[in-house]
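Duplicate of #3305? Posting structure anyway:
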């Protein structure tokens, strides 16, 4: 019995693992395990009975958490956009743009995956959309099935690290940090991961060109009447807009000074990037609209089509991320504006119907309830685990690892990687992260940086064979039987499950390389965060002393007197007046 009393925390954690392995739902496994060991702890006098009285307050605290409101908003936005036709237009246009080069369709999928990630934040919506639209086209033109399926699944998982990401919202809530800071810290790693995916396709195009062939010339339908591609016009427009953005970015302090009417010497980096990009996009849109209205033919069809197709998602990105980075809106408010923008886009395309709205609301409600139930179960488990000194056990287990911070980070990331084979990011965030945060804080690790690092690692949970959810989503839309292509009339072989699994392996390796880079170079994350103000306490003290009135015994009584009037004081001294009033005030009797 003594052994049971002194080791209740590890026994409780082992009991949770047994509950999960038995196949019980995660939310109910957490709640049941927490209550079961709470009653045992009370009976053994390990934890006080009064501790359980805090449980209702904690559950009500979940319902009052404004940050969690961003989850249904972003989910609804992603589901509406999935059915608005935006992904279809993007993939078709960007596919035509990159089609002439080897691996062009794969580049298009990666680029569109990053755009969808920055607008939807939902993996299922991105993977299913690109699987339905791009996979048949890639199979039609001879792409290797492993490469095609791996690129689609990996690009869809970018929604887990590129803001607005549901993972980052939950991690921010569990770590007690700002969602906006999480978004700023994850922006550069997300872009780098997108670049690594593209670099992998470039390597394949060089060494295995038959795996990623270019589109045949007859499939490139977006051309001029003369047969030209129209790419020079697009290149010139891109160069002009990029140059204008760079000019605006470099002169942001001067622009702020002119706008506000007072001198501004420095502007935050995130605000500079957002405003400069918005200016470049607006310039491209104005040029395309002017060309379309006047019909001067200054822009090619390719340039005009690319501009008009990219404007809606970029506008939505500004509505969501731009307002958050500029400090205009909180993440919850940004999600609400994004959901409204998705409704407007769906209405503009004529895709908004009652059945679509009903289906999107149903799925959003189901996912939101799923998150809340897991969070309630995790709260019950966490309260009991704290009562039996579970965090202290975890701290002793991890803080004493050899290597200090580096040893802790290596062990934690290996543990998260293997747990991701069996648990999804919701379960990892609610079960494991609260146990790791106190240890990370004690070791001096910045929790925003730590949260982004865990988010990149958890992204692999969607790609792990055989339980990766992105692979399941792709399997549900990939052809499992032979079929005749409508365009080429050729017999297309099916995509097997093993081909999907093998296609995911290189991208899982790329994600692990990204984890290593973030550990080796912390500035990848911290460079996107606002710099903390550093105050010189000695300088502050000197300034305070200079502003304080001189002591009474150091004041010259003749200073400031006029016309020899010895009774007239030079200036009002508030401190002396207060002392005089206290000295002359008659003593009050009780």
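Output from current build:
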């Amino acid at each position: 019995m003594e052994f049971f009393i002194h080791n209740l925390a590890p026994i409780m954690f082992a009991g949770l693992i047994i509950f999960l392995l038995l196949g019980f739902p995660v939310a109910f496994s957490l709640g049941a395990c927490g209550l079961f060991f709470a009653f045992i702890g009370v009976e053994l006098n390990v934890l006080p009975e009064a501790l359980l009285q805090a449980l209702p307050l904690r559950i009500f605290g979940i319902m009052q958490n404004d940050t969690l409101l961003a989850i249904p908003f972003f989910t609804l936005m992603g589901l509406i956009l999935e059915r608005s036709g935006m992904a279809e237009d993007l993939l078709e246009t960007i596919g035509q743009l990159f089609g002439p080069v080897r691996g062009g369709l794969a580049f298009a999928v990666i680029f569109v995956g990053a755009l969808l990630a920055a607008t939807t934040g939902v993996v299922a919506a991105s993977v299913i959309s690109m699987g339905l639209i791009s996979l048949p086209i890639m199979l039609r033109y001879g792409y290797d099935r492993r490469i095609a399926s791996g690129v689609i699944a990996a690009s869809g998982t970018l929604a887990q690290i590129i803001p607005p990401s549901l993972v980052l919202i939950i991690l921010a809530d569990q770590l007690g940090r700002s969602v906006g800071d999480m978004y700023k810290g994850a922006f550069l790693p997300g872009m780098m991961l997108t670049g690594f995916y593209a670099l992998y396709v470039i390597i394949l195009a060089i060494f295995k060109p038959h795996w990623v062939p270019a589109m045949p010339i007859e499939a490139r339908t977006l051309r001029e009447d003369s047969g030209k591609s129209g790419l020079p016009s697009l290149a010139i427009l891109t160069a002009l807009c990029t140059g204008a953005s760079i000019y605006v970015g470099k002169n942001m302090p001067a622009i702020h000074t002119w706008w506000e009417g007072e001198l501004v010497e420095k502007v935050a980096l995130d605000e500079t990037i957002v405003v400069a990009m918005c200016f470049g996009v607006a310039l491209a849109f104005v040029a395309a609209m002017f060309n379309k209205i006047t019909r001067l033919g200054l822009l090619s069809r390719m340039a005009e089509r690319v501009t008009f197709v990219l404007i809606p998602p970029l506008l939505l990105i500004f509505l969501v991320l731009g307002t958050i980075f500029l400090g205009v809106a909180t993440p919850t408010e940004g999600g609400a504006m994004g959901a409204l923008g998705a409704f407007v886009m769906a209405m503009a395309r004529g895709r908004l119907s009652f059945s679509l709205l009903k289906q999107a609301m149903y799925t959003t409600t189901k996912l939101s309830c799923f998150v809340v139930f897991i969070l309630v179960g995790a709260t019950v488990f966490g309260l009991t685990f704290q009562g039996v000194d579970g965090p202290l056990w975890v701290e002793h287990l991890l803080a004493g690892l050899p290597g200090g911070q580096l040893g802790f980070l290596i062990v934690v990331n290996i543990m998260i990687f293997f747990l991701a084979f069996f648990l999804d990011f919701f379960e990892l965030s609610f079960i494991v992260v609260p146990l790791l945060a106190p240890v990370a804080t004690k070791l001096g690790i910045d929790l925003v940086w730590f949260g982004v690092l865990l988010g990149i690692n958890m992204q692999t949970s969607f790609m792990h064979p055989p339980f990766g959810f992105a692979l399941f989503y792709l399997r549900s839309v990939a052809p499992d039987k032979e079929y005749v292509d409508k365009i080429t009339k050729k017999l297309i072989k099916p995509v097997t499950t093993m081909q999907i699994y093998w296609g995911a392996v290189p991208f899982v390796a790329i994600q692990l390389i990204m984890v290593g880079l973030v550990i080796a170079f912390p500035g990848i994350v911290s460079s996107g965060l606002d710099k903390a103000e550093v105050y010189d306490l000695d300088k502050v003290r000197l300034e305070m002393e200079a502003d304080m009135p001189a002591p009474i015994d150091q004041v010259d009584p003749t200073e400031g007197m006029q016309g020899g009037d010895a009774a007239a004081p030079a200036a009002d001294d508030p401190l002396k007046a207060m002392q005089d009033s206290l000295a002359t005030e008659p003593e009050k009797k009780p």
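Confirmed duplicate; merging threads. The first strand starts at residue 483 and ends at 484. Residues 559-571, 585-590 have pLDDT under 50 and may be disordered.
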